[in-house]
Amino acid sequence: MVLNLHQCCCCDSSLKKTGITHRLFDVLRKWEAHGVVFSQDTWLDYPNNTDLTLYQCQNCGFGVFLPMMIGTEAFYTDISRNEYYLPERWDFQVAIKALSSHKARSVLDVGCGSGAFLNLITQKLPDVICHGNDANPAIRNTLPPQVNLHLNLSDAPTNLDAVTLFQVVEHVADPIELLQESIAKVRPGGLVIVSVPDHSGPIRFFADSHTAIPPHHVSIWTPKSLELFLNKFGLSILDRKTEPLPDYLMPFYLPKILANKLGASGDLSREEMLSRRLSTPIVNLCSKLGIKSLPIHGHTYLIVSQKS
Ligand SMILES: [Zn+2]
Q: What one-character DSSP code corresponds to residue 203?
């Protein structure tokens, strides 16, 4: 099964063209305005200033930008120079608990990037045999020596206790193929843990951010779309988790969340007033009291599912 670009890969409804379009060169220039320097190789990977239009499912909220324009190796090499590392990443912590409570002894992290999650497993669950999958051979240098790196997912072993896909599906041209290949690596009864940026949450207020659109993110996901997607492959849902709003996102998200709640979205002067009088004092108070998160909708959604 491969992705049909005109049909929702989660619920099979048709994808409708939205009015949301981004010009590729404008997006690349936005990255550069945020400090990324693109090499000539990256610019050569994107020779045409294509219009990228969002097609969205009215039923589940899944969306895909067309024509499909994913991040190339040169693009990821360039943007990862400025990557910052969050050892306390919420989805990693939730997954560690799930792996521990299901007594998983072997894990494959698909799209493991610099290996932050695998590093964490080797510290928190040292008996677990770790496999990572990423196309970039340079990450071997950042992985603990006991982690087995597979540059191709097809080379990873089968019959594993768990696979994890942390914020990976939104980057790939074909999430169906990726999930099918990942599920094939898990034993019956094993876990498939998937997290995505949740576009039903406050990130929808930043939908035109360069980090949320192609070539970085080529699809958008909601809790409903992710669950339907996993169900489609016969996975049973064991747990659903929404990230609480973490402290480092409060200064950005809270003003938008409050403006939306109070019916001031889009009215920039009211938004500014609410930010000054409400959200800034709340953020400052949380910082003073050492509050690390608020129990309101944050960035990420995660599902723990099980192969039958
Ligand atoms: Zn759908």
A: G
- Are 196 and 243 within 8 A, CB to CB? no
Residue 144 tokens, joined: 């603990």
User: What's the 170 CA to ligand 1 centre distance in angstroms?
Assistant: 15
As a whole number of angstroms, the distance between CA 121 and CA 92 comes to: 9
Q: 199-241, pLDDT tens digit by residue?
A: 999 999 999 999 999 999 999 999 999 999 999 999 999 999 9
Q: How far is the CA of 167 from the centre of ligand 1 (A)?
A: 19
3-state DSSP call for residue 205? Answer: helix
CA of 219 to the centre of ligand 1 (A): 12
Q: What's the 221 CA to ligand 1 centre distance in angstroms? A: 10
- Residue 209's CB is within 10 A of a number of other CB atoms, namely 15
Residue 263 burial by Cβ neighbours in a 10 Å radius (0-12, 13-18, 19+): exposed
The set of residues, in sequence order, having a beta carbon less than 8 Å from that of 21 and lying 6+ positions away, is 51, 52, 53, 54
How many A from CA of 226 to the centre of ligand 1?
9
Length of the chain (residues)? 308
Q: What are phi and psi of 281, to 5 degrees?
A: -60, -35
